[in-house]
Design brief:
The complex is a heterodimer of chains A (272) and B (261).
Chain A lengths: L2 H40 L10 H14 L3 H31 L1 H14 L8 H8 L3 H25 L3 H9 L4 H39 L4 H10 L3 H29 L12
Helix pairs in contact in A: 2-10, 3-4, 3-6, 3-8, 3-9, 5-6, 6-8, 7-8, 8-9, 8-10, 9-10
Chain B lengths: L1 E10 L7 E11 L4 E5 L6 H8 L7 E6 L2 E2 L7 E4 L3 H4 L6 H6 L9 H14 L15 H14 L4 E5 L7 H18 L2 E6 L2 H7 L2 E5 L4 E8 L10 H4 L1 H15 L10
Parallel strand pairs in B: 2-10, 3-8, 3-9, 6-7, 7-8
Antiparallel strand pairs in B: 1-2, 1-4, 4-5, 9-10
The chains are: A mainly alpha (272), B alpha/beta (261).
The complex binds adenosine-5'-triphosphate and magnesium ion (MG).
Chain lengths: 272, 261
């Protein structure tokens, strides 16, 4: 085969590849939807517990159309945003401090390793005791859970700053605050971004959990109400809505990450 | 003038396995002088430079820059690291990398920009300012690191095997560039390399080190005429002689045991 032919073939292979890349997720979703449509209709499972996909989506669409879904979504997102924001406000400064001071790192390590695996859900009684069953409890739980990933990622990101990068700045007499701002933080940013992305998902989970368990207004509460009133299709529709929100938030985080880390090997465009 | 007096560096002191990298090292570098340090890998060359740069506390001995003891990074000194790819910041453009240490100079925006552009041009990278270091080749990155040190306008420049990872042609170009810049800016240079040809070609004096624990094996004067030329200087019998002399000095094993200062 001539070189031109080879190159053309490679070109075709790449375009086929990218087409597959793009269509594969859609095919996956379509398959799942069809499966969830066919299985209940065929009577394999009881349609009372698992209604067909079309029914779930119809009830979700109904909620969107009459606007009744927006206020619970807003309440859930409020819990998410406040939880994640507070977690960042706590975890970033603490993480930078712990990561910068070796003694503090050693001193706090076991405390963190002990507190981190405590499931936030186990703190629900404590939250109720401290804050009652209102919004504060939801935010407390979301914050508690979302703090750890950011804290740990920040600590390890700060500790992992390349000594050569640091010594370069020191050798030029760059002041400590500027080294923190221009060297330590950018270099730890990939870690921090990962932490924030994980924490974003965690904060959403805890916000919905608090609504389910404590009856805070929000999607979780609506899901519970739908279940109690036997509106199974609506319940599924709302569950799908929480999934879509989680998915959307993840896309948002990934986009933000791409923005901030355009210089990082994992995000550089045109290197592949 | 730079004076290193009886410098000794033991890594991991007080631990179960201390390692004596530098045993006893004394050397002086006069103003505007070009001094090279050669020695086998692991001889403590980087260690020496870090102590001189005030980045690493020595175990004993002292470093003086213009009769002032060095205890932290001196303002009039710049260091080009062996590992340039790690010493440039990938989140800053080339210009920002060069501007980063200039804050102390308080030059004002326009003057800073001009200085950066001038220095970039002098290393042949006038067009690369807006790029990121990782968009450049290894040799170009090395030149950015050199440009950053030059823009800082140091009185003394320490360079740690700055050309170790570039091809022969780029290397020759960079060598001549450094000699040229030294003449132009009147900088004192302390230059670490393990390439003997390079050391002889560039230097006024070559300091040969023993393997660790390091001492000075020998200091060789290089009376070759300046300006030097890659072809003409290197074809002189004097050059060949000096080169062979330094070579033998490194290979002589008895230096490991005995000191000659
Ligand atoms: N942080 C450290 N802790 C312990 N030992 C070290 C440390 N840094 C360097 N050493 C040891 O000190 C010795 C000298 O190291 P140094 O980096 O100064 O050598 P070098 O002459 O620069 O070598 P090269 O030519 O390979 O760059 C080596 O044996 C090395 O293993
Ligand atoms: Mg070295």
């Amino acid at each position: 085969m001539s070189e031109a032919q080879l190159r053309q073939r490679a070109g075709i292979r790449i375009s086929v590849r990218s087409m597959l890349d793009r269509t594969a997720p859609a095919v996956g979703i379509a398959t799942a939807v069809v499966l969830f449509e066919v299985v209940p209709r065929s009577g394999l499972v009881d349609a009372r517990f698992l209604p067909p996909a079309s029914a779930m989506l119809r009830s979700l669409a109904g909620q969107v159309a009459d606007g009744s879904i927006w206020s619970p979504i807003g309440q859930t997102l409020q819990g998410w945003a406040l939880g994640l924001g507070l977690a960042m406000a706590i975890a970033l400064p603490c993480g930078i401090l712990i990561g910068s001071l070796y003694l503090l790192f050693m001193a706090t390590r076991s405390i963190v390793e002990f507190l981190r695996p405590v499931p936030s859900v186990a703190l629900i009684p404590l939250a109720v005791l401290l804050f009652g069953a209102g919004l504060e409890s939801k935010i407390f739980l979301a914050t508690f859970a979302a703090t750890w990933p950011i804290l740990l990622q920040t600590v390890y990101g700060v500790r992992d700053v390349d000594p050569v990068a640091m010594e370069t700045a020191r050798s030029f007499g760059v002041s400590a605050p500027r080294r923190l701002l221009r060297v330590t933080l950018p270099s730890a940013l990939p870690y921090i971004a990962t932490g924030v992305r994980i924490s974003s998902a965690v904060a959403l989970i805890l916000a919905v959990t608090a609504e389910l368990v404590l009856g805070n207004p929000g999607l979780g509460q609506q899901i519970n109400i739908a279940r109690q009133s036997g509106a199974v299709e609506l319940m599924y529709g709302l569950i799908i809505a929480t999934g879509l929100i989680g998915w959307g938030l993840n896309i948002l985080m990934t986009m933000l990450e791409r923005r901030l880390l355009h210089w990082h090997p994992s995000q550089r465009t045109g290197t592949r | 003038m730079l004076r290193v007096e009886h410098l000794r560096k033991v890594y991991g002191e007080g631990t179960r396995r201390p390692f004596e990298a530098v045993a006893d090292l004394s050397v002086t570098v006069a103003e505007h002088e070009f001094v090279s340090i050669v020695g086998p890998s692991g001889a403590g060359k980087t260690t020496l430079l870090k102590c001189v740069a005030g980045l690493l506390p020595q175990t004993s001995g002292a470093v003086y820059l213009d009769d002032e003891e060095v205890i932290g990074p001196p303002e009039k000194m710049a260091l080009v690291f062996q590992d340039y790819s790690r010493s440039l910041y990938p989140w800053m453009t080339v210009q920002d990398n060069i501007a980063f240490p200039l804050r102390r100079r308080k030059l004002g925006k326009a003057a800073t920009r001009e200085l950066i552009q001038d220095t970039l041009r002098s290393v042949g990278l006038g067009e690369a300012g807006a790029k990121y270091p990782w968009q450049l080749s290894g040799g170009m990155q090395q030149r950015v690191a050199i440009a950053r040190a030059l823009a800082y306008q140091p009185e003394i420049l320490l360079m740690d095997e700055p050309f170790a990872s570039v091809d022969a042609q780029t290397r020759a170009d960079l060598e001549d560039l450094v000699l040229d810049l030294r003449d132009r800016y009147g900088i004192t240079i302390l230059f670490v390399t393990h390439d003997i040809d390079e050391a002889v070609y560039l230097s006024d004096r070559v300091v040969v080190l023993t393997p660790a624990p390091t001492r000075v094996a020998e200091i060789v004067d290089v009376p070759l005429a300046r300006p030097r030329d890659q072809v003409e200087t290197k074809e002189q019998p004097e050059f060949a002689h000096l080169r062979a002399y330094v070579w033998r000095s490194i290979k002589r094993p008895e230096h490991a045991a005995t000191a000659s200062v």
